[in-house]
What does this fold into?
Amino acid sequence: MAQGALFAETVEEIYARVFHELKPRTPLPDFAVEYHPFANVNSSISMKGHSVQVKLSDLLEDAPAQVAESLAHILLSKMLRVPIAKSYVHRYRLYLTRKDIRRRMHLMRQTRGRKHISGPAGRYFNLAEIFNRLNQEFFEGLLGQPELGWSLRRSRFMLGHFDPSHNAIIISRVFDEKTVPALAVDYVMFHEMLHLKYPVDHSGARRCVHTREFREAEKLFPRLAEAKEALKKLS
It folds into this structure.
């Protein structure tokens, strides 16, 4: 298809064309594409009867047609359970890693996202005390203290995470127990503090969360193997 023809399509027409490319012998359903003020670049697709409803983040409303086409391939391939061409995934990720888009995503999370966490003081561990001690021991006291808090749920899947949009470190409440070794809590906090020091690296379409500098710094944690073993027992 010519470049100009691609740009002339509506987003619904793009989804209809991609559907036909993936399932040429299947009758075309009706497509309804809506943009919503999500707190992230979320996308969803569902089919009921002869209608397909697509919900996209409004951040994508002014995306180039090629990006809309790539996302259409991704969503429809998932819905139809067919392999997703890597070229479309690469193009979509490349768009999301653009500096201007990452800046808009960051602002969107700040203004729309909600962070429900408790304060740093737990029943058995105080996250502020742990942060300050580790900051002096491993970071020469140079890290600015972000918001610290326990998760609202006792997650055994996400043991901790650093949220750069809200400048917050959240530790799973599963650690705030008398039977949990302090070494395990120290290590999770140390790991999230490394995320504070070594931000996510964006190179092309790749997003590297644990950079080489991050992994090398993590090795400096004493009794690292013992700490990881303790986490396995908890998770």
Notes: The domain at 127-234 is CATH 3.30.2010.10 (Zincin-like). The first strand starts at residue 30 and ends at 36. Residues 1-7 have pLDDT under 50 and may be disordered. The two ends are 51 Å apart (CA to CA).
